Amino acid sequence: EVKRRYGVTFQHGALFSSLTVRQNIEVPMIEHLGLSPAARRRLADLRLALVGLPLEAGDKYPAQLSGGMVKRAALARALALDPPLLFLDEPSASLDPAATRAVEEIVLTLAQRGTKIVMTTHDLAQARRLAGDVVFLHRGSVLEQAPAEAFFQQPASATARAFLRGELVW
Q1: Digit-coded pLDDT (tens) for 99-130
Q2: Are 51 and 82 in contact (CB under 8 A)?
Q3: DSSP annotation string for 96-158
Q4: Exposed, middle or buried by CB within 10 Å (0-12, 13-18, 19+), for 152?
Q5: Distance CA 15, CA 71 (A)
Q6: Angle at Cα 72 formed by Cα 134 and Cα 114, nearest 5°?
Q7: What is the pTM of this model?
Q8: Most distant pair of Cα atoms in the chain: their distance
Q9: Number of C-alpha atoms within 13 angstroms, CB side, residue 137?
Q10: At CA 158, angle to CA 155 and CA 160, rounded to 5?
């Protein structure tokens, strides 16, 4: 039951290469929903539309997609069960600016819909654009936690200040 309440994307998509995009999206539905194949297909097509992928993309294999399409397909799979919580690991890593913008718009739309999003990123500009709150990790521990505006304007720790100046901290 807990697994139905969250979705996860991984930095490199982690789609099953032997399944089509639509089949990838249907995997959580098969495991948790007990829907008919036709109902799963309709729901998968809704998820494709939600992340801005054409229905034809559902018939392709991950290797046939661009990097941005793989990221959006992985996001569609994470959304298969309409979870209230979403974990995103570097959702736009290695994407060009247009694909990054597309992913960020989806993330913002989901957040506005009420989905709680926990996202890891090394992209400070992206964190400034998307974050409501920031948890700054250093050496495996939470060094600072604050609303995004406060964190970026006045970080409490010297390490966070150095990081925001672009220094390499370790």
Answers
A1: 889 889 999 999 999 999 999 998 899 999 99
A2: no
A3: -HHHHHHHHHHHHHHHHHT-EEEEE-S-HHHHHHH-SEEEEEETTEEEEEEEHHHHHHS-SSH
A4: middle
A5: 9
A6: 50
A7: 0.86
A8: 56
A9: 7
A10: 50
